[in-house]
Amino acid sequence: MQAQASISQLTLDEIVNQIFAVRQIDRSIQRQFMNTLLNKTTLNPQDQAHIRRVFDALQRGLLRVV
Questions:
Q1: Among 6, 16, 42, 45, which is most buried by a count of CB atoms within 10 Å?
Q2: Whole-prediction pTM
Q3: Strands (E), the chain
């Protein structure tokens, strides 16, 4: 349960870095990624780049969904 609490405090940069560090995305990280993005009123170019980076890596098979 403590790991879940620490995940909820991560910034978008940290979430994306964690995804690429382990080369996989699980349901809890996906939920945190989506919540972080959906809680923003607008997405800046850096946020959009994070979304594209994750999506492209998923499409190319560089990330595993677990």
A1: 16
A2: 0.80
A3: 24-25, 64-65
